[in-house]
What does this fold into?
Amino acid sequence: SLSLDLQKSFAQNAKFDVAVGPKSSVEEASFGLSKQVSIAFAPEIIIPYNMNKTNWDEAAAITATPKIMCQKTTTIGCGGGMAVGFSIVSADWKDSFTTSASVDIIGSQISNTFKISYTKTF
It folds into this structure.
C-alpha cells in the first residue's frame, strides 16, 4: 500500500487553576502551530497456511509487510519498518484469531506495536 498522511494542529492556549496547599494560581500553556506530513510504501506479502484439517483450517494466513517511510515535522526523517502477522478463521467461520507485531524506525525514533484479537460470532 501507498499512504500519505497530513496532520495540522492550530495554535491554542489552555488556562488551568493550580492549588498546592494554601497557594493557588492560574497557569497557561500555549501550543503553537504543528504540521506533520508522512508518506509510506508498505507492500503486504500474504502466505496461505494449512493447519492440516483441524477445526481452525478454513482460512489461515501468515503476512509480512516491509515498509519504507519518510516524515516531515520540523526536520525530514526517513526510515523503515517490518510487520508480521498471523490470522485464522475456524471451519464454521464463527471464530477468528489475528495477531501482529511491527517495528518502525525513523531516525532515532523507534515505535513498536503488538496486536491480538479474537472474535466469536454467535
